[in-house]
Design a protein that fits this description.
Layout (H helix, E strand, L loop, with lengths): L9 E6 L17 H14 L6 E6 L11 E4 L3 E3 L7 H9 L2
Helix pairs in contact: 1-2
Length: 97
């Protein structure tokens, strides 16, 4: 195993978990998680920050009833119930030094 520091300053993991149709537990995929992730990733890329800020796909982050869900680092923030309207604020948080 090799260990080394991360090559980026900030990261966010956006849940895109897809459960089978009819599953009793909701999932972020059915609540727009993938589209939110893709738009946020595009916002970062358009700012030219895609080498410093990474927008990752994630499996279940454990707050299915409150999705879409994301976890942001290094702040260690748990973001619940993300909507399209939240993306500008999330983007600004990712851009801070």
């Amino acid at each position: 195993m090799k260990k080394f520091g991360l090559p980026f300053v900030r990261s966010i993991f956006v849940c895109t978990q897809k459960r089978p149709d009819g599953h009793p537990i909701p999932c972020c995929a059915n609540r727009g998680g993938m589209a939110l992730r893709m738009e946020l990733k595009e916002m970062v890329k358009n700012q030219g920050k895609d080498k410093e800020v990474k927008v990752f796909t994630s499996g279940c982050l454990g707050a299915c009833d409150h999705g879409p869900v994301a976890v942001q680092y290094p702040d260690g923030e748990y973001l619940l119930g993300i909507t399209q309207d939240d993306l500008p604020e999330i983007f600004e948080d990712l851009m801070k030094d």
